[in-house]
Amino acid sequence: MYAEKRLSGSLGGDASISTHTHLDDGLLEKIAAIDHVKFRTELWYSREELRARVDKPGFFCLMVELDGEPVAYDFGYRDEEPGVYFSDSSATLVERKGVGTVLAVLEMVYLLEAGYRAVKFTTEEYDQAGRPLRRIWENLGYRTVSVDSGGVTMMMDITPQLVNSRVNDHLLSRG
Ligand SMILES: CC(C)(COP(=O)(O)OP(=O)(O)OC[C@H]1O[C@@H](n2cnc3c(N)ncnc32)[C@H](O)[C@@H]1OP(=O)(O)O)[C@@H](O)C(=O)NCCC(=O)NCCS
Question: Helical H runs in 39-152?
């Protein structure tokens, strides 16, 4: 798989990417381990909150492991808005090596295959570590639809042309 090869190269190890459509205990522990390192305490999901995601229709999760250790995830579920996927959370222990981008693009591929017409999520302008989150996602083509006290809401239409172009730019051409 190109994405695994690409990440194995940039991370300097054996990277594997798995997909999940339900949240078992093993997956829950892996997500929680990454989540608790990357997010400030008030943003932590408790095991119960994470587990509640299982009850949401359309749950989908990508998990990256490096030499058998969990290093990154991306998960979401069907939004209330028809045809829209809500990308709930994404985080990586190893930053600036393309993991976040690869996960975002693989998520787009899945959403196209699964028949979604758009993806939506909420983020922050900057987080506590100064990461320019809104700009990071805008660079990948997500557009800002609203900014309020609940954060920045971003969306992207999922079309074959868009997904093809992201796959070419980020998965195939730099490997
Ligand atoms: C946001 C996050 C998932 C990005 O993942 P990542 O693997 O570091 O991102 P990539 O390596 O694919 O970087 C893509 C581009 O984003 C930008 N970027 C990423 N981190 C950045 C930072 N700290 N400062 C400025 N630009 C940054 C850069 O343009 C980067 O490309 P470059 O490294 O070639 O310049 C990661 O920083 C993370 O886990 N953050 C903590 C959790 C979080 O905030 N999740 C997002 C909630 S919406």
Answer: 47-52, 99-113, 133-139
Query: Ligand 1 centre from 172 Cα, in Å?
Result: 20
Q: What pLDDT, in 10s, does the model give residues 44-79?
A: 778 888 888 777 899 999 999 999 999 999 999 999
Residue having the nearest C-alpha atom to atom 33 of ligand 1: 96
- Tens digits of residue pLDDT in 114-162: 999 999 999 999 988 899 999 999 999 999 999 998 899 999 999 999 9
Q: Is the CB of 127 under 6 A from ligand 1?
A: yes
Pocket test for ligand 1, best of 6, 37, 126, 131 (most atoms within 8 A of CB): 131
Tell me the C-alpha distance between 11 and 147, whole Å.
34
Residue 175 belongs to a domain: no
Q: Confirm whether 91 is domain-assigned.
A: yes
Does 85 reside within a domain?
yes
Whether residue 29 is contained in a domain is answered as yes
